[in-house]
């Protein structure tokens, strides 16, 4: 398989810790588990970070689109949630593969926008690059260094 790494991000987790230090270019941030899960609660948990990345990408995509169109989008607020749902018609519901990962994005778009503009922005919200990646049938390959 031919692969090209576009961005290099380093994640470091030290011995006996659930705290992950993320180094992305000039930026460093923490991802951790809550106290009740054995972490030290020094940062968002991995799913919160994933939802945050999706929400940020969605908001940035909406802002860029509205600015390009000259639309009066004053404020963007996005609430996100993640859960595992069972397929409605699953025959083997006890199998882990019968569960569906579901992310819900609730968009609050403020400004003097028409119903047509709001509907278009709702459609654009589903076109952010992070959402496209998550929805694409993503493949992840792990290799030992």
Briefly say what this structure is.
InterPro entries: KH_dom-like_a/b, OsmC/Ohr_fam, OsmC/Ohrsf. The protein is α+β, with helices and mostly antiparallel strands and 145 residues long. The protein has helices at residues 46-69, 115-125, 129-135, and strands spanning 9-13, 20-24, 27-31, 73-86, 99-111.
Defining traits:
OsmC/Ohrsf; KH_dom-like_a/b; 145 residues; OsmC family protein; globular; single chain; OsmC/Ohr_fam; alpha+beta; two-stranded antiparallel sheet
Characterise this structure.
The protein is α+β, with helices and mostly antiparallel strands. 29% of the residues lie in helices and 29% in strands. The protein is built from 3 helices and 5 strands, in the order βββαββαα. A 3-stranded antiparallel β-sheet has the order 1-2-3, with no helix packed on it. The protein has a two-stranded antiparallel ribbon with strand order 4-5. The two termini are 16 Å apart. The model has no long low-confidence stretch (mean pLDDT 88). It comes from Rhodocytophaga aerolata. This is OsmC family protein.
């Amino acid at each position: 398989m031919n692969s090209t790494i576009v961005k290099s991000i380093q994640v470091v987790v030290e011995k006996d810790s659930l705290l992950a230090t993320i180094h992305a270019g000039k930026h460093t941030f923490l991802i951790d588990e809550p106290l009740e899960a054995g972490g030290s609660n020094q940062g968002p948990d991995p799913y919160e970070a994933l939802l945050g990345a999706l929400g940020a990408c969605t908001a940035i995509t909406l802002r860029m689109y509205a600015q390009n169109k000259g639309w009066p989008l004053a404020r963007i607020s996005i609430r996100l949630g993640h859960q595992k749902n069972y397929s409605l018609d699953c025959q083997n519901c006890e199998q882990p593969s019968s569960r569906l990962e579901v992310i819900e994005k609730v968009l609050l778009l403020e400004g003097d926008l028409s119903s047509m503009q709001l509907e278009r922005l709702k459609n654009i919200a589903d076109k952010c690059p992070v959402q496209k990646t998550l929805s694409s049938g993503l493949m992840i390959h792990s290799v030992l260094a």
